[in-house]
């Protein structure tokens, strides 16, 4: 996950805790963004009226580390990346660094192998159909 966090301290700081907002975010859905902001704002209220800017940044890093697991379904097989019942038993997953899309490792490897075999067999018909079907989709670069 990646976020740009804005911590805004008013002239009344440190008597009043700063406000916290997410400016930019990758890899966190709205629910987890709200959870993170609530957690950091609660921490700010706990530490008030003391100095806390560095402590809030450290808290955000720690919380993001805890939340650094994929959310949602694998776009290839449409099964959950992490099942709610077995959050500790996640299947290996792969994250594309440019866009933060996540896939089960097995799914992306199977897709990659299919793509390579299609190129080797020279199936230009299927390549053209695939190109038309994939127009407008994420144009991520896959790197292993």
UniProtKB/TrEMBL annotation:
GO terms for cellular component: nucleus. It comes from the Eukaryota. InterPro entries: RNF25, RWD_dom, UBQ-conjugating_enzyme/RWD, Znf_RING/FYVE/PHD. One of its GO terms (molecular function) is ubiquitin protein ligase activity. Residues 1-67 form the RWD domain. GO terms for biological process: protein ubiquitination. This is RWD domain-containing protein. It comes from Pisum sativum. The lineage of its organism: Eukaryota, Viridiplantae, Streptophyta, Embryophyta, Tracheophyta.
